[in-house]
Write a structure and sequence with these properties.
Number of domains: 1
Radius of gyration: 16 Å
Order of helices and strands: HHEEEEHEEEEEEHH
Strand content: 25-35%
Structural class: alpha+beta
Largest sheet: 5 strands, mixed
Length: 190
């Protein structure tokens, strides 16, 4: 956990949203409270991946059943403070992609994400927040894709210009994905 805290402390926020969310995430991490597992029903850590095609023209997305929207890929830390490892594991589990390249081991973005109450595996999960760390990955568009039926009902490489038409979560689309598009474009230009 010390490495994760240091990585977040050293992360330079990209915009006002990240400045604010960095403070919130560090505040939770520095409390003597478990945020590594879902035992904390108020807030817990998640690792996400912004997976771009090798030419940076497509994003790997899943149709997330709970959010009823096309979305990036990520998941709960479930005790693992190496959120890059979590993000890679989630990409493999949720999409079937096996050939993944870590474009940078550094944090790509930070987000505090609100999750509405929902039913999961037959039980109600109260509204809570995900203290999310995102990493930039690349994968081959020739890898076979497969859905993970308990979490998603679609997996596709989506052209960047088509993402906004697919995503129904307005705040995520306008505040988070627009930021990730800009950051990936800057990264691709070196």
């Amino acid at each position: 956990m010390k490495k994760l805290i240091a990585d977040i402390e050293n992360y330079i926020p990209f915009n006002e949203q990240e400045v604010s969310d960095k403070k919130v995430i560090l505040n939770w991490l520095k409390k003597d409270i478990d945020v590594l597992t879902r035992n904390n029903t108020d807030a817990h850590l998640t690792g996400s991946a912004w997976v771009v095609s090798q030419d940076f023209k497509k994003i790997l997305m899943v149709y997330h059943n709970i959010f009823d929207s096309w979305a990036w890929i990520g998941g709960h830390a479930d005790g693992d403070s190496d959120l890059l490892r979590v993000a890679i594991k989630e990409v493999k589990e949720e999409s079937g992609v096996e050939h993944i390249e870590v474009l940078s081991p550094d944090i790509f973005s930070l987000e505090v994400l609100c999750v509405d109450g929902h039913i999961k595996r037959g039980e109600y999960v109260s509204s809570h927040v995900h203290l999310n760390v995102t990493y930039l990955l690349s994968a081959s568009t020739s890898d076979c894709l497969r859905i993970k039926p308990d979490e998603n009902s679609g997996v596709e490489w989506v052209n960047i210009e088509d993402v906004n038409d697919r995503v129904t979560e307005i705040w995520i689309k306008e505040k988070i994905y627009s930021k990730l598009f800009k950051k990936a474009e800057l990264f691709s230009k070196g």
